[in-house]
Amino acid sequence: MTLILGIETSCDETGVAVVENGTRLLSNVVASQVVLHAQYGGVFPEVASRAHVEAIVPVTQQAMDVAQVTLDDIDAIAVTRGPGLAGSLLVGVNFAKGLALGHGLPLVGVNHLEGHVYSLWLAETDTALQFPAVCLIVSGGHSEIVLIREHGDYTVVGSTIDDAAGEAFDKVARLLNLSYPGGPAIQHAADEGDPTTYAFPRALRGHGYNFSFSGLKTAVMRAVQPPHQGRRAPKSEGMTPEQLRPDVNVADVAASFQVAVVDVLVEKTIQAAATHNAAEIWMAGGVSANLLLREQMQEHSPLPVRYPPLALCVDNGAMIAAAGFFRYQQGYRDDLALDVRPMWPLVSIRDHMTKG
Ligand code: KG4
Ligand code: ZN
Q1: Which of 264, 265, 314, 320 to mutate to test the pocket of ligand 1 (most atoms within 8 A of CB)?
Q2: Domain check: are 137 and 271 in the same one?
């Protein structure tokens, strides 16, 4: 039995978890900063790192208490090294180094996107996950289609050329005066709406596996704002309420926007899976919580579709522990010189492996 302590601080959640053999959750504690950032309509980096500093010790203590373990029971410490906010990553990595040094434990740096993929290993399922898989990783910061041939073997076959899918949800939610984070708010609003009201663009459809969501965001802005405001960038709006055209039905806009995003995500993932002879389609990351995305992927995919338990779609320490376990098993170790990599792309483990 191998117990990994997983630590995640790349963005706005302080997450610590204890996972057994990469698949069994013993504890998973997440201190969310959503309330802190809601007033800005997005993550405020300095506020995030300060909140991680305050939360990391109590969250770790709680994760060990719930799992009923001490550091003596832990085999290795896995921590998110990147990508993410530099100041936030530093809090987790420095804390992990301190624990590793103080208790003589191996240290394993994990890619945050890889962490999202490994949240799938924490799902209770009757059938084992099959390689090769094509995984759609969609979060607030990333939209990637990744071919995964084996544990730790990643080839990115497509990614966004501008906004991430979750970022588009967050920005459009702001345009519609919906709450932050935007994904759940839009999904909820869309329940009451007619997705055929607006024919919003499906960018790069039929053109490879890259995504583009910024044109969609602009199309929504043009549809909802009074004409004289049409060209203002949503970012410049701060938290002042958006002026909407009087005839705008927010539910219809939300539903039409949501289906436009889902259509391209589903179409491109299924095409990529066919091209690369995948055995299964996986999805992970905050946006993989979206019910329409799950439904549509299931409906259109000829292959089995896997997604993480809802609670593990957004950032958490458990997924980092699970990914850390598989790295640890392959002999991957980091030393105390481990740095943070705010822009770290998802590369195969063998391409940056240091055996310990
Ligand atoms: O994976 P995550 O917690 O953080 C990053 O690594 O970025 O993803 C957060 C993103 C946010 O943009 C949020 O709006 C989106 O996931 N999200 C959703 C849903 N739940 C969260 N997007 C669409 N539908 C949802 N139900
Ligand atoms: Zn994430």
Answers
A1: 314
A2: yes
Of 260, 190, 174, the C-alpha closest to 219 is: 260
Cα 69 to ligand 1 centroid, rounded to whole Å? 31
Domain CATH number, residue 118: 3.30.420.40
Q: Can you tell me the distance from the alpha carbon of 35 to that of 180, in angstroms, rounded to the nearest whole number? A: 9
pLDDT per position in the chain (356 positions), as tens?
999 999 999 998 999 999 999 999 999 999 988 877 777 777 888 888 999 999 999 999 999 999 999 999 999 999 999 999 999 999 999 999 999 999 999 999 999 999 999 999 999 888 899 999 999 999 999 999 999 999 999 999 999 999 999 999 999 999 999 998 999 999 999 999 999 999 999 999 989 999 999 999 999 999 999 886 555 555 544 456 778 998 999 999 999 999 999 999 999 999 999 999 999 999 999 999 999 999 999 999 999 999 999 999 999 999 999 999 999 999 999 999 999 999 999 999 887 765 43
257/296 same-domain check = yes
Using an 8 Å Cβ cutoff, are 162 and 151 in contact?
no
Cβ atoms of 28 and 9 within 8 Å: the answer is no
DSSP state of 287: G
Could you tell me if the CB of 170 is within 6 A of ligand 1?
yes
Ligand 1 atom at minimal distance to the Cα of residue 291? 26
